[in-house]
Write a structure and sequence with these properties.
By secondary structure, this protein is an alpha+beta fold. The chain has helices spanning about 55-65, 85-100, 125-135, 140-150, 205-215, 250-275, 290-305, 305-315, 320-325, 360-370, 395-405; strands spanning about 1-5, 15-20, 30-45, 70-80, 110-115, 160-165, 170-180, 190-195, 230-235, 280-290, 340-345, 345-355, 355, 375-380, 385-390. The protein is built from 11 helices and 15 strands. Helix 1 crosses helix 2, helix 2 (about 85-100) runs parallel beside helix 3 (about 125-135) and helix 5 (about 205-215) runs parallel beside helix 6.
């Protein structure tokens, strides 16, 4: 596998564009388009929130009915959630307009929205934005980057990546872009992720690879404990790499799944590290677990702990908060066996051994916790399984952003 420059336009046959439609923001782009020269097989995962935005329901139907898709239209600023029949009608209007301008089947137009809940979309602005997107779309790396920037809300940076692998002598590319900064919590979050590939792959293999990987990537991140109404991950495959078809439970499938995992984990970590007001990415790694599920449960509990997140913000090696978070995670372990290590670019330091504090340097621990990427490793010494979860520190910036988000 090779990591290459680019995002959703890296795979053969995919184009992208951005537009400043003025939906909510007046000083930046706020609509994006992903377009494929050929219709695509699709796979997707969606929010577990009972309250689902209109575009989530729209996309779920397309994926479940196995309709081939050729374009994704995304807007930022307004979520089109809790908008009733009117919101669903706007999805239909958007799809019809995009299909008409792009010359494709309206049944294959996927949608994505992110932003304020409860507001209705200004459809004339949306329709004008679609016209601009169709005119501007292109296949360059820059076109993909512009699209990644257009879907941001409180994000501080675009999130994109692309990789290539070789399948049967053919180069296969997977590219992706994502957004997410707040209302982020395991079991999907206010995040949108769009993955493109030129692989020839069966629908069963696509669905299996994406579904299995989401539980180890996007579902292992948390910023604030809130699960959104809009989160969506879509995978589009147009088959233009002309490789031998990738089928479930084959060597080629494992290679594709590994590459997809790399893309998803990268985007998930970028979302976690770009949490609203955050200054650091926190990785919690639990090793020596009896089962994979035990490791995941303990790791998620650490990154979800507000007290732990606040300690990281203060560069305070308050290990008791971490052990406490593990203790209420809902899975049994022996706290008197736990070893805890802090690590970053500034070094590595053992904090507790067998549940008891070691004679460590507070100054060194503070130095380690002052870096932009920090790993906390907890060894529970019960087996050979392990898992990682990702979050961020909790600062005053989170309150500043969310206290007046609508205005």
């Amino acid at each position: 596998m090779e990591v290459i420059k680019g995002g959703v336009t890296a795979a053969k046959g995919f184009e992208a564009a951005s537009a400043a439609a003025g939906i909510k923001y007046q000083d930046r782009t706020d609509m994006a388009l992903i377009y494929s020269l050929k219709p695509c097989k699709t796979a997707g995962t969606f929010t577990t929130n009972v309250v689902k935005a209109a575009p989530v329901k729209w996309d779920q139907r397309i994926v479940e009915e196995k309709v081939k898709a050729q374009a994704v239209v995304i807007n930022s600023g307004i979520a089109n959630a809790c908008t009733g029949e009117e919101g669903m009608g706007y999805c239909e209007e958007t799809a019809k307009k995009a299909a008409d301008i792009l010359g494709v089947d309206e049944k294959g137009i996927l949608l994505g929205s992110t932003g304020v809940i409860g507001m209705q979309l200004p459809m004339e602005k949306v329709k004008n934005g679609i016209r601009i997107l169709a005119e501007q779309k292109g296949h360059t790396i820059e076109d993909g980057t512009h699209a990644a920037k257009a879907i941001m809300t409180t994000d501080t940076c675009e999130k994109e990546i692309a990789v290539t692998i070789e399948i049967g002598g053919k180069k296969v590319t997977i590219g992706g872009m994502a957004k997410g900064s707040g209302m982020i919590h395991p079991n999907m979050c206010t995040m949108l992720a769009f993955l493109t590939t030129d692989a020839v792959i069966s629908r069963k293999a696509m669905k299996a690879a994406l579904s299995a990987d989401v539980s180890d990537t996007y579902n292992m991140i948390s910023v604030d404990g809130d699960t959104s109404t809009n989160d969506t991950v879509l995978l589009l495959a147009n088959g233009m790499a002309d490789n031998k078809k990738i089928k479930l439970d084959t060597k080629e499938y494992e290679e594709f799944k590994e590459a997809l995992h790399y893309v998803n984990e990268y985007l998930a970590k970028k979302i976690a590290g770009d949490g609203e007001g955050a200054t650091a990415l926190l990785e919690a790694k639990v090793i020596g677990a009896k089962t994979k599920e035990q490791a995941k449960t303990l790791a998620k509990s650490i990154v979800c702990s507000n007290l732990t997140k606040a300690a990281i913000a203060g560069h305070d090696a308050n290990w008791g908060r971490i052990l406490c978070a593990m203790g209420y995670a809902g899975t049994a372990f022996d706290p008197e066996k736990v070893d805890l290590v802090f690590e970053s670019a500034a070094g590595k330091i053992a904090i507790i051994q067998n549940g008891k504090a070691l004679a460590y340097s507070e100054e060194k621990a503070t130095e380690i916790l002052s870096c932009p990427e920090i790993t906390v490793t907890a060894d529970v010494k019960e087996g050979k399984e392990q898992a990682s979860a990702w979050g961020c520190d909790l600062t005053h910036g989170y309150i500043d952003i969310n206290a007046d988000y609508r205005s």
